[in-house]
Design goal:
single chain, mainly alpha
Length: about 375
Amino acid sequence: MADRRTLRDLALIFTKLGLTAFGGPAAHIAMMQRELVQEKRWVEEQRFLDLVGGVNLIPGPNSTELAIHIGHDRAGWRGLIVAGVCFILPAVLITGTIAHFYRLYGTLPQVQSLIFGIKPAIIGIMLGAVYPLARQSAKSIQLIVLGFIVLLLAMLGINEILLLFGAGLAMMTAKYITTRNKSTSVFFPIVLPALSCASEATNQKLFLIFLKVGALLYGSGYVLFSFLDAELVDRGMISRQQLIDAVAVGQFTPGPVFSSVTFIGYQVDGWQGALASTVGIFLPSFIFVALLSPLVKKLRASQLMSVFLDAVNIASVALIISVCYLMAKDTITDWRTTVIGIVSIFIAFRFKKINSAIIILGGAVSGYLFLLF
């Protein structure tokens, strides 16, 4: 049974991450790597890589599921709940507060000066974290070549789920042909059946819609918004402008991008709608991780499936690098963002134990001062 100190430590670290994790799932994973692998050494590099690969194979928000996994590793089912809730809750509360004032005044807060400096700072954090992950996952020439192929295909816009499973199956097939070992096991992503949204009650509809989304949606959190356009806008539950504003909220608030559904639920039915939507979208992640956690260890123990997992790991790193490149292309647009980005990269590589929140704070302050003067 987990002791109170372990649970308290989990609560503190994931609350802090929930308050400072800007930039989307890839950036969140990079911050967790710095905090939990490099600084606190709670998780071994290989285990962290395996968990990153594992959460990429199931639906839902990857960084949230990674937080839940780590909590489960540290303190069983209690740690699973504490880590997940503490990572999600700050974003939900911030988003809910913004949703309340948006409903009153019809506008979003002006935070562009802070975001201006935070975005290039996140690039530094991501590069600093992805380097040791890439070094750990590059176990052979074949895996390195595979990583470059996945990176190239990701740049060309190939679906990330196809790349992950394709990489794993390609390496597993090559291993099978080499060894002629026919005692294979097969691993498929866990998927819940689609749920009906026929209930008349608005909050029950919201809960079921978002439960279905959380159980079936692969890819980054940004895929969520195209899905919701059909689910909510076309049904008249929210306007397209409200959906666009929800996307904006997801961009400038920390924590999981999926917390944007809190904003959407609030526009539909106040705090009750926000609660129903939030619980619905995140509940499948807790269930999936509870089911997946023992499977990751079994995958690593199997010789053939270990090859599959190694390939998924290198593919996951390649996908993070591709996201980092795309973010940098959109973010590093002038000399000010270039300076913030270079300084952040230098700090991330030179001072490996520095807290990610300090780099983000430095970026925010720098961005504000650059725009002010």
